[in-house]
Design brief:
- The complex is a heterodimer of chains A (293) and B (157).
- In chain A, a hairpin with a 3-residue loop joins strand 4 and strand 5.
- In chain A, helix 10 crosses helix 11.
- Chain A folds into 3 domains: 47 residues, Uridine Diphospho-n-acetylenolpyruvylglucosamine Reductase, domain 2, CATH 3.30.43.10; 111 residues, Uridine Diphospho-n-acetylenolpyruvylglucosamine Reductase, domain 3 (2-Layer Sandwich); 110 residues, CO dehydrogenase flavoprotein, C-terminal domain (Enolase-like, domain 1, 2-Layer Sandwich), CATH 3.30.390.
- Chain A is of the alpha+beta class and 293 residues long.
- Chain A has 11 helices and 14 strands.
- Chain A has a 5-stranded antiparallel β-sheet with strand order 4-5-10-6-7.
- Chain B has 2 domains: 74 residues, Ubiquitin-like (UB roll) (Roll); 68 residues, DNA polymerase, domain 1 (Orthogonal Bundle), CATH 1.10.150.120.
- Chain B starts with a strand and ends in a 5-residue tail after the last helix.
- Chain B is globular and about 45 Å long.
- Chain B has a 5-stranded mixed β-sheet, with helices on one face.
- The longest helix of chain B is centred in the last third of the chain and has 15 residues.
- Classes of the chains: A alpha+beta (293), B alpha+beta (157).
Chain lengths: 293, 157
Amino acid sequence: MYPPSFDYAAPDDLDEAIKLFELHNDNAKIMTGGVGLINAMKHHIIRPGFLIDISRIRELSLIGDHGGYLSIGATVKVAELQRSDLVKRNYTAISEAAGAIADPLLRNMISVGGNVCTGNPDDDLPPVFLSMDAQYILAGRNGRRVIDADGFYLGHMSTAIRPGEILVEVRVPRQAERSGSAYIKRELRQNDHLVAGVAASISLEEDGRYKRLAFGLSGSGNTSIHARLPGAKFTGSRPIDVPVGDIAKMVVEEASPLSDRQGSASYKRKVILALAREALTLALQRAEQGGQK
Amino acid sequence: MKISVNVNGRNVDADVEPRKLLVDFIRDDLHLTGTHVGCDTSSCGACTVLLDGVAVKSCTMFAVQANNRNITTIEGLSKGDELHRLQSAFIEEGGLQCGYCTPGMIMTSAWLLSNNAAPTEEEIRNGISGNLCRCTGYDSIIRSIQKASSDRRGGRK
């Protein structure tokens, strides 16, 4: 299976990539890992005339602790994100979502940028980044622009990225003391398309009350969903006073799953309810154990 | 486009169309036909090769992406006539039926063992979850990988 012919460049410098993208913007695509892109090209779903492979730009390939935030470069492979001790320890749900993507071989190939930028509602990293109030850094000819993950996902395969812009970095605010997170996804068979996935990210006050609680959903609508209602309603409550199931019910209210081969919409709502309970319970345990800083 | 790759220890300079898939470059241009094409849609893993020592599916990469990098295919695992211990283990444990998935299974296993010399059965099952065997001979494949890993630990089964 072959895509139509195209031209290819793999600059090792970001400015050069931006210039090339501007020059060929009407029919160029940015390639990071290339897995989603190449499959779409092989099926002739998209036919770019020019591919700009940014995987050789070193500054985009780093994971770093920058004090106030975790910095993840756009070309970091999701296998590396899954394995990173820093990520596992302090941003557990990110590691879990990275490990939930595709299969071990494809995780060696798929990049953070591709998983974040496509706008596919089934992608695993966006719900976690939404629940952690992450920001995306976009670079273009007019410099850099910071956008909240919260405003990034507009619809099915549609994001707020503008023509000529390249996602270069994801920034995740440092998780407070007494915070915990989890991402759980349900598949009917291993490596199958997901039924749904839920990310929970919480932090607690010193006296144990909810300081912050947020959820992100995959496979639960036409794009990645940030479920904010529970945070607005239960911040300041003590976990012991609010049944986990009550919070999970509010999460489901924000989902609008579609019936498809993975199940009917009503089945998926039940799955999302169960996953929300599980993810919140796990995040709460992690926060209370103080295992995640 | 001109590319330069190291394949199984040999430097290769070639002129390829950007749309040429890495697996087709390996099979059609280099005539290394041990790497197979199964699904051609990144599901089955029959095309698995090592890129700088890391297992990847070569049907979902263009050859140009491998420029200036090292590729190891199933042909590069043995040293002359001396089989790699994974190859011997697959023979001894009957880790193949039709053999179509075998090169991919072995390349994935080589990567797996390079990161984890003594994986548990669960780690092996997860590790090869991107490789499909349609004869469904998974149990013997897992035994083969276990044998190769215990061979490395001094012949203990």
